[in-house]
Amino acid sequence: MNLARAHVLVGVDDEARLAGVEEVLAALREAVADFDLSTEVQVVETGSLGVSGHGVVVAVQPDGVYYAGVTVRDARPIAEEHLLKGRPVRRLLLPTTAPAARPADVLTRQKRVVLSNCGVIDPEKIEEYIATGGYEALGKAVTEMTPDAVIDAVKRSGLRGRGGAGFPTGIKWSAVRTASDPERYVVCNADEGEPGTFKDRLILEGDPHKLLEAMAITGYAVGAHVGIIYIRGEYQLSIARTERAIRDAESMGILGERVFDTDFSFRVEVRPGAGAYVCGEETALLESLEGKRGWPRIKPPYPVTCGLWAKPTVVNNVETLANVPDIVRLGPAWYRTLGTPTCPGTKVYTILGNIRYPGLVEVEMGTPLRVLVHELGGGLLPGRTLKGILVGGAAGAFLAPTELDVRLDFDSLAERAAVLGSGAVLVMDESACMVDMLSSVLRFFRHESCGQCAPCRSGTDVLVRLIANLQTATADRRTLDQMVQIVDAMRAASLCPLGQSVALPVRTAFAAFRDEFTAHLAEHRCPQCQTTARAHGLHA
Amino acid sequence: MTKDAIAARHPRSPEALLSLLHDLQKANPENFLMPDDLALAASHAGLPLAAVRDAVTFYSMFSLRPRGRHIIRLCESPNCHLAGAWSALDELRGSLGVDVGETTSDGAFTLELTSCLGACGVAPVMMVDDEVVGNLNPERVRNTLARYREGR
Lengths: 540, 152
Fold this sequence. Notes:
The complex is a heterodimer of chains A (about 550) and B (about 150).
Chain A: E1 6-11, H1 14-18, H2 21-34, E2 41-46, E3 58-61, E4 65-67, H3 75-84, H4 103-108, H5 126-131, H6 136-144, H7 147-157, H8 169-177, E5 185-190, H9 199-206, H10 208-222, E6 226-231, H11 236-251, E7 267-272, H12 282-289, E8 313-317, H13 318-330, H14 332-336, E9 346-353, E10 359-364, E11 367-368, H15 369-376, E12 386-391, E13 397-399, E14 407-408, H16 410-415, E15 424-429, H17 434-448, H18 454-471, H19 479-493, H20 497-501, H21 503-512, H22 514-519, H23 527-535
Parallel strand pairs in A: 1-2, 5-6, 5-8, 6-7, 9-15
Antiparallel strand pairs in A: 1-3, 3-4, 9-10, 11-14, 12-13, 12-15
Chain B: H1 3-8, H2 17-27, H3 35-45, H4 49-58, E1 70-75, H5 78-82, H6 85-96, E2 109-114, E3 126-128, E4 131-133, H7 138-149
Helix pairs in contact in B: 2-3, 3-4, 6-7
């Protein structure tokens, strides 16, 4: 960044756009100029500042002051009172009503590796990324390290895939490195679709160069010269920012021919998806990239030997890749100081639902669920009690409040037969009906089942009809058992993880909230279920 | 821009199929892919017409039927469900006078349901074309529709 006395960071994401951030930005710049502060104060347009539900959020650094719900009218008071006279505008401060956690603490208590630049630098200025140490790791890799040394560093870091499965990244890379075919690809999975998840969007919109740097390092390590980012079609701003970042990096000679003046060349392309959750499954994604419908392939062979166009291919999630530059730059030993011995590093979570501060946080692997819900999320709304938590997205597990002490990492959750998944944490208070919530999960799976294999295609449809019976009080004693039989069959016989994973939300919801489900068997008038049934045109 | 000019901006490869289809669909005011578009995409990408139809019918963002000038996609995933997406749906149905999957008689809007849009911080959420509209309540739905009816 330029040498300025203060930076006014304005978070630009969809929520801020909705609240008129463009006008606020213009007003702030005008006000700064009016008070003759242009040489001392820089107004920076940046990605999301990690606070949701507060309209336009503005941070003044280095003061660490956060303003919420900023409008055009507030620009002059901020410039005059805070920037000129040094007195923060109290009425605009981000609310600090919760004694348990204050938003400013929420932001400082995180450990940000993946999101270190998000909301701090201007994502549309490559110079700002470089000023924070960006592209240093790529330069170090291609000029000082052999490809094998890069893979070795990633292996020793213990980095595991953040897309949900937790597979060791270094092992994946070395399988591609040692493949016999010299034509190889690096594919970044940015088809973020797990309900309740928007971490990849934040990285793409807040720090796209970090992803490009990571992909080039991956390409160097595995011997690939083409990288492809598959971004879901609905993420228009992500696509635009990433494409712009590619152009800027190419014009500076960082990507393209002769990276850092070496013999290594690497180019990156963006490909949009077109609305299909199943394309987040890596082989379906590859099919989609080849211009086909996104039907998962039968594995093996795995993409590391037979991926895009049947060539060896690394497929990594956005968040996984965003860890790579710091691992190369600061070394695997540094990385291992974070997280747990088997799951080093940090994890980005989205905390949502009936919670005081919904939003996105990055903390070390192994952080207890309780800390996320009650400290970083600020706890429940006043007067409400916790009823349940859906951890890991639609393909995740329903947990009872007694599970709050579970640690959030791949292995601790596996011990509880749950999954980390995409890191979505949906908090529900007593106003939520678990039958109704599960019905939403099941309708999601029916809509997104790709139709290729019978267990998933038919199973999701029958499950939606059975839970509709529960919602209209027309189910009988056998309904719950039938649902369990179906999800178990789907787990055993479905072709891809989509169908296999439906068992998890169904079984965990039944286990943790059995009484509520059996209550819906009898004559039962549940207001939430009635609303849903009416919306879907279902009748008792 | 002619359809041929749109195609010329994409590489002649199956890899370009989805982006080409997006662009062709956007060029039609009624937000759908016409038979000629599919034929053009097939010859440009070097794929059989049947393969292009196969892909088009798979992805939810493509349509083979004419739609409204604006596409409304309301999220029905668990987080928006919990936040009360149904009251927004009631308002959309009432204000537009159409059900899910239908187009208003003046050709202005098509109402669709979608899976998670990744804007969960402002649930319940819908997209109108490329714009994300969140914190939906009946009033916000009405105001948004009015804004689009008046041409922004």
